[in-house]
Amino acid sequence: MKRFPLHIALGFWAIVTAFPLLWAVTSSFKSDAEILTSPWTVPSEVRWENFSRAWNEASIGQYFLNSVIVVGGALFLTMLVGGLAAYTLARYRFPGNRFVYYLFVTSQFFPTFLALVPLFFTVEQMGLLGTKLGLILVYATFATPFTIFFLHAFFRTLPSAIAEAAFIDGCTHWGVFFRVMLPMARPGLVSVAIFNFLGLWNQYLLPLVLNPDPENYVLAQGLAALSTSQGYQSDWSGLFAGLTIAMLPVLLAYVCFQRYIQAGATAGAVK
Amino acid sequence: MSVLARPVERAAAPAPPAPRKRRRLNRGYGFVIGALAPALVLHLVFVVSPYAQAFYLSLTDWNGVAGKADFVGFDNFTRLAGDSLFLDAIGNNLLLLLLMPAATIGIGLFLATMIQRGGKDGRTGVRGSRFYEIVFFFPQMLSVAIVAVLWGFAYNPNNGLINGVLRAIGLDGLARSWLAEPGLALFAVMAVMIWSGVGFYMVLFSAAIDGIPKEIFEAALIDGSSGWTTFRRITLPLLRDNVQVAFVYLGMVALDAFALVQIMTVGPGGPDGSTEVMGLSLYRTAFEYGKFGYASAMGVALFFGTLVFALVALRGNKNRTELA
């Protein structure tokens, strides 16, 4: 009984957190009339057609696919490029090593807004404005400094005896990286990959500026554009269905892998 | 010929170790260059060069036409100082900076303490702590644009969640047009920032409290320390670094706030500039009005604002540590 007030406090915040999400999910099964007249009751019948309408007519399916391609491509690129850079900076001595490291790491503390205008023209001049390749390159580049910062510390802690044994057995530098060091760094790679995935999936400013073609919209961008466009009043239920499509897979994946994800998401702040 | 050639060949024979060693060293450098080049090239093209150009552009009147950028010195900055909308934006960002991180950290710390130390004897975690942690973390999984769309609906005056709940529990009088009243809109945006940030910092603080040796709390309990005293004298001082990191991160979020404002508010930035933020001004000036030089000056102002904040936040803590 003594713990009762405590559970009220915790339960209150749990409701504050979860209720808006539940409300959006239940609304996505309602008809427009129900949403307008009784915003917070359960739907009278489950209307799956809202979802097919959102997926096809409102192009949520297309946006979802675009997001998967862009974020997937950028994630792979940043892990490869950032992993290689972190490894060489952590384990090879060469003139300028410190300088290059700080060139990467300090850029994390610059606000993206400062780079926005020149970045737009750089991407435009390369002919990459509004292309998936352009977004992938920029996403990967912006995620690389943190990847290097995190993996640099990680590669330093790995023992060198196994790498030396591999060299003696005739393994090349590339071979040692891909076949010895990378597998040994797996826990660090998983954490930073989760962190990067969430960060890139979360991007809004970069696609807004660099990805003006509605065909190529990523999910968050497309949904935001739908909700602010003039015609949205006519299809509330479709928009809620779109919102649910954007939220639910991520939340389900989170509930399944929450320990990894919490560790990965907080990786930046614990370091 | 062959007689002459043979001794040369033989003389070279004992040498192999040396060239091999040299080759290994060379290949090491080759590897370093090959492995570093992709990241470095991308970084120079898409990060270093744009940041460097921004500082230069802020001193020009460039409107996007190639070759037509005149150097105007600090004119853009003097204009900024008299730009009432941008000054509103600075004020709004500062208000967010003043209130949002403190509220988020406060709620996060409270929940983390409850979860970690709320067990029956005041030593262990509360029952169901894992469940609470999972639910509190939900908003962190959603992209900020999704959160903005969700709350844009929730604040809708006619069929939104907030007014719906208020009417359902008989508080019709409290129902508002949340994003349309100048005095309320910024706080409505701030509430969303707090809503989405608390879970992350709660998990962070919770892990930190979990890392404090149990003996310390037991000693305090034996000495008859109350829950509040334990929190103030033990938990909080030991979490100082975490709180500082949280404050810096949340401060950056408060100085940004672009996505929420741009998606949720009327205008966006309205009503009447009451939710304008620096990032929104910059975005509009550059990509709607095409005043790229002036927009870059806003970027430089935002950069120095962020820099000053970060230095003050980190410095303030250093002084306290020295005193302690």
From TrEMBL, chain A:
Localization of this protein: Cell membrane
Membrane topology, as annotated: Multi-pass membrane protein
The answer, when asked if tRNA processing is one of the entry's keywords, is: no
Q: Which domain of life is it from?
A: Bacteria
Report the CDD domains cross-referenced here. Answer: TM_PBP2
Bilayer-crossing regions? 63-87, 99-121, 133-155, 176-201, 236-257
Pfam families (alphabetical): BPD_transp_1 (PF00528)
Its chief place of residence is membrane
List the signal peptide residues: none
**Which keywords does this Swiss-Prot/TrEMBL entry list?**
Cell membrane, Membrane, Transmembrane, Transmembrane helix, Transport
- What region holds the ABC transmembrane type-1 domain? 64-257
Recorded hits in InterPro entries, A to Z, give: MetI-like, MetI-like_sf
- PANTHER family annotated for this entry? ABC TRANSPORTER PERMEASE PROTEIN MG189-RELATED-RELATED (PTHR43744), SN-GLYCEROL-3-PHOSPHATE TRANSPORT SYSTEM PERMEASE PROTEIN UGPE (PTHR43744:SF8)
Q: Which family does it belong to?
A: Belongs to the binding-protein-dependent transport system permease family.
This protein is called what? Sugar ABC transporter permease
Q: Where does this protein come from, organism-wise?
A: Lentzea cavernae
From TrEMBL, chain B:
Question: Per the UniProt record, which residue ranges are transmembrane?
Answer: 29-52, 94-113, 134-154, 184-204, 242-264, 292-314
In the bilayer, the protein is annotated as: Multi-pass membrane protein
- Chief localization: membrane
Q: Which UniProt key words apply to this protein? A: Cell membrane, Membrane, Transmembrane, Transmembrane helix, Transport
Q: Spell out the residue ranges making up region: Disordered.
A: 1-20
Alphabetical list of CDD domains matching this protein = TM_PBP2
Every ABC transmembrane type-1 domain range: 90-313
> In which domain of life is the source organism classified?
Bacteria
What compartments host this protein? Answer: Cell membrane
- What InterPro entries does this protein's entry cite? ABC_transporter_permease (IPR051393), MetI-like (IPR000515), MetI-like_sf (IPR035906)
Query: Which family does the entry's similarity section mention?
Result: Belongs to the binding-protein-dependent transport system permease family.
Name it: Sugar ABC transporter permease
